[in-house]
């Protein structure tokens, strides 16, 4: 087992799992307690437009994904808060619109998109050192913002109307939270892929919610669970020669089912 | 307070006006939710607003709080617009809509009431914690401060939400259906709490339950899109019938409990 560590791509994959656990452990908790799973799934899928944009412009797709996912988060937030269009309708529209933009961009790009599938389904073995540095920076941003606005995010998630009345800038904070979700999606993209990101944003947080009634503890348990599922899934995918992203999601799903039955 | 407030002083009893609504209309998708609401509430009043479900009671509170913009009309809180004035309002929203499993303790819930007093992102101060402590003391929930909010009974949760509203030391307390979650035998205790709070602030309580407005309120209004209010504790059968759109039988409970006039 340990001789595998001499390969750089294996070391990168392990580091990527740990960095991804931090982002999805923290933000997944807010996604679950504030019940914004659907909008988060929407942001994840819409950000595929950014992958296409990256290919179209001929740059590393991550430079397309970061602005595009933040933009789709803000558009979804604006449409659901500032118009009378129901939130789920808005998400449904933007979800598919973002993906189709991605497909059109890729179609317009010259040549063949080599690692397209690794963005859709994840391919943790292709994570580069540049990817790791970006993941680390995004993790630090997420940690800092959540550390700073922990109380405000708690109030917003528990009762945003009351928080508004006492003077918390709830709309701005909600947009900030959506942007953090967008950044988390960037961090998770190579690990499990756009299509399955929502699993890592919900499963670890949903399990930890069953075991604690304190949000901080919930965050730490979620990070730990994400790391266990990520490393476990990676190991299993290596042993059985399966797709790593899908295996991580299946391991997480089995973890959820076991913990749910354990609690009954 | 300011000049404007002085101008608003009630001629009859000389107490300042705290809430004033003039010709407030709210139209949503061509349906009138509120029609021509005129309402003046004075300091230290305890106003009960009754009306059927869907009659616009919660909406009216949200208009007062500036959470909903009226289509027409003026809303004034202590001489300010609602978004300014609401920092002087303690809001106790309709219980029920929160997730019982939400990972938050009683103490954390009450402290969120202090969030508007500081810059976003700053830690709670000693004063915040003292105020939270005092508020939990007033409602008698201090020994439950470490518990998860969802583990408490309905009545206890309601007390915690009142404590959360009290930590800003509001001049006005708005309560939306506060008795819905409290068993009838415990309601008396709840009213005694409000009775104590009444000395320090103006209270507006909204409910669909006629029997819930008891001897403790000193003014009653009826709301079903339109507001019927005679600045008194009496309700007229005509008003109730107009409010509920059906004949209403009134039962008065002897003189001390009389909230309804002789009929």
Structure description:
- The complex is a heterodimer of chains A (264) and B (263).
- With 264 residues, chain A is mainly alpha-helical.
- Chain A has one domain (2-257): ABC transporter involved in vitamin B12 uptake, BtuC.
- Chain A is built from 13 helices and no strands.
- Chain A has helices spanning 8-33, 37-46, 48-57, 61-82, 87-108, 116-121, 129-148, 150-158, 160-166, 170-192, 197-209, 215-240, 244-263.
- Chain A is globular, with a radius of gyration of 18 Å.
- The mean pLDDT of chain A is 93.
- Chain B has helices at 3-7, 57-64, 82-85, 106-112, 126-138, 154-166, 184-198, 237-244; strands spanning 17-28, 31-42, 46-50, 72-77, 89-92, 172-176, 202-207, 219-224, 226-229.
- In chain B, α7 (184-198) links the parallel β6 and β7.
- Chain B has one domain: Rossmann fold (3-Layer(aba) Sandwich), CATH 3.40.50.
- Chain B has 8 helices and 9 strands.
- In chain B, the strands form 2 sheets. In chain B, strands 5-6-7-3-8-9 form a 6-stranded mixed sheet, sandwiched between helices.
- In chain B, α4 (106-112) packs parallel to α6 (154-166) and α5 (126-138) crosses α6 (154-166).
- In chain B, 28% of the residues lie in helices and 23% in strands.
- By secondary structure, chain B is of the alpha/beta class.
- Chain B starts with a helix and ends in a 19-residue tail after the last helix.
- Chain B is globular.
- The A-B interface holds A 33, 35, 148-149, 151-152, 154-155, 157-159, 161-169, 173, 209, 212-215, 217-218 and B 65, 67, 86-87, 89, 91, 93, 98-99, 101-105, 108-109, 111-117, 120-121, 123-124, 148, 150-151, 164, 168.
């Amino acid at each position: 087992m340990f001789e595998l560590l001499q390969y750089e791509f294996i070391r990168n994959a392990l580091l990527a799992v740990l960095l991804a656990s931090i982002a999805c452990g923290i933000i997944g908790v807010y996604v679950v307690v504030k019940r914004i799973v659907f909008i988060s799934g929407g942001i994840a899928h819409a950000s595929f437009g950014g992958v296409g944009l990256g290919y179209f412009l001929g740059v590393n797709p991550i430079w397309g994904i970061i602005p595009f996912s933040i933009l789709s988060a803000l558009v979804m937030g604006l449409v659901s808060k500032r118009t009378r269009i129901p939130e789920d309708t808005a998400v449904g529209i933007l979800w598919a619109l973002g993906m189709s933009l991605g497909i059109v961009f890729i179609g317009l790009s010259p040549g063949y998109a080599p690692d397209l599938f690794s963005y859709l389904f994840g391919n943790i073995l292709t994570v580069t050192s540049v990817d790791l540095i970006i993941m680390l920076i995004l993790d630090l941003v997420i940690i800092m913002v959540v550390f700073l606005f922990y109380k405000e995010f708690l109030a917003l998630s528990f009762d945003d109307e009351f928080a508004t009345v006492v003077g918390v800038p709830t709309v701005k904070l909600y947009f900030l939270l959506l942007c953090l979700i967008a950044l988390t999606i960037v961090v998770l993209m190579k690990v499990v892929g756009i299509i399955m990101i929502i699993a890592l944003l919900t499963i670890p947080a949903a399990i930890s919610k069953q075991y604690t009634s304190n949000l901080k503890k919930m965050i730490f348990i979620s990070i730990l669970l994400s790391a266990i599922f990520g490393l476990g899934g990676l190991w299993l995918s290596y042993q059985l020669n399966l797709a790593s992203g899908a295996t991580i999601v299946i391991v997480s799903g089995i973890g959820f089912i076991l913990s749910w039955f354990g609690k009954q | 307070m300011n000049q404007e407030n002085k101008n608003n002083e009630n001629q009859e009893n000389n107490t300042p006006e705290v809430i004033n609504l003039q010709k407030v209309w709210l139209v949503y998708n061509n349906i009138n939710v509120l029609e021509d609401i005129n309402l003046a509430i004075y300091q230290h009043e305890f106003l009960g607003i009754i009306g059927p479900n869907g009659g616009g009671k919660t909406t009216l509170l949200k208009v007062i709080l500036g959470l909903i913009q009226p289509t027409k009309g003026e809303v004034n809180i202590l001489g300010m617009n609602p978004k300014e004035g609401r920092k002087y309002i303690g809001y106790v929203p309709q219980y029920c809509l929160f997730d019982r499993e939400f990972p938050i303790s009683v103490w954390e819930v009450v402290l969120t009431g202090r969030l508007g007093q500081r810059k976003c992102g700053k830690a709670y101060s000693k004063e915040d914690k003292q105020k939270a402590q005092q508020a939990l003391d007033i409602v008698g929930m201090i020994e439950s401060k470490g518990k998860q909010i969802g583990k408490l009974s309905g009545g206890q949760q309601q007390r915690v939400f009142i404590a959360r509203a009290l930590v800003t030391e509001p001049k006005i307390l708005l309560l939306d259906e506060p008795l819905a979650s409290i068993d009838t035998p415990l309601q008396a205790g709840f009213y005694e709490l409000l009775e104590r709070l009444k000395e320090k602030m103006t209270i507006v309580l909204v409910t669909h339950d006629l029997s819930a407005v008891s001897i403790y309120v000193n003014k009653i209004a009826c709301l079903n899109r339109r507001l019927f209010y005679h600045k008194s504790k009496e309700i007229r059968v005509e008003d109730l019938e107009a409010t509920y759109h059906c004949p209403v039988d009134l039962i008065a409970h002897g003189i001390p409990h009389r909230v309804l006039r002789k009929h």
